[in-house]
Amino acid sequence: MLRDEGPLVPMAGCTDLYVALNFGALADTRFLDLWPLHALRTIEECADVLSIGALATHTDLIRSALVRRRLPMLAAAAREIGGVQIQNRGTLGGNVANASPAGDTLPVLAAADATVVLRSAGATRRVPFTAFYTGYRQTVRRPDELIVAFEIARVRGRQAFRKVGTRAAQAISKVVMAVVAPSGSGRAEDVRIAVGSVAPTVVRARRTEAALAAGASIAEAQRLLGEEIAPIDDIRSTAAYRHRVTANLLAQLLAPRSS
User: Fold this and answer.
1) Does residue 64 sit in the same domain as residue 112?
2) Do 129 and 114 touch, CB atoms closer than 8 A?
């Protein structure tokens, strides 16, 4: 249908889509309802790769013992999305396809080096999550493709997630960060840092990661991270606040856990 009857807008939980439609911000008004496709809700482990179907809801992620064991920072992010009603309807694929830089799961998938699995009527292709976004609310997904799954290899190290918003729930993030940090005898070069709500797309902080791997101090890493992000003033916050919070979160999430 996407190939032969388009353009069509894929829809599932509609927690963002209906908002855009009601505000008149959505040009397309022909939709393809994916909600009945239960095969796209599977969460499984195959050959040491965690595969999460695009229609897995945030509640599914919170409840999945496999997600909590393999990718606890994703379960933590899912708990921060809206309220229970949103968590029951919103899907991981929808959060990614919506392409908002404030998407709570996006930094997690970036820090986890996830792969986006795209399928059309004729082929399947896999795109690294860090290459999926090309600009503000723009992705490499073609009109004839669906996001069908996300694949995540085993993540080594300690995982941490933090969202800063106006209130504890039902709030769009001012800054959201996911970090993978070495634990125990882990190598410094294994650190991964991803930040949302501070640029047109989610930011994977490669320069900051490289500096930390080379032995940089936290202060130097904070300075570099400030150069890698490009926050703006908007209705939710100011650029200066986002810079400061991002620096503080980096120090907090990289700090060794107390025993």
Assistant:
1) yes
2) yes
* Whether 96 and 48 share a structural domain: yes
C-beta separation of 161 from 76 below 8 A: yes
Report the distance separating Cα 202 and Cα 196, nearest Å: 5
Q: Could you read off the pLDDT of 67-102 as tens digits, one per residue?
A: 999 999 999 999 999 889 999 999 999 999 999 999
For the full predicted model, state whether its pTM sits above 0.85.
yes
Q: Are residues 117 and 222 in the same domain?
A: no
Range of the domain at 125: 34-153
Count of domains in the chain? 2
How many Cβ atoms are within 10 Å of 199's Cβ, its own excluded?
16
For the chain, the helix, strand and coil percentages under 3-state DSSP, each to the nearest 5: 35, 25, 40
72 touches 90 (CB < 8 A): no
Domain end point (choices 153, 173, 190): 153
d(CA 136, CA 73): 24
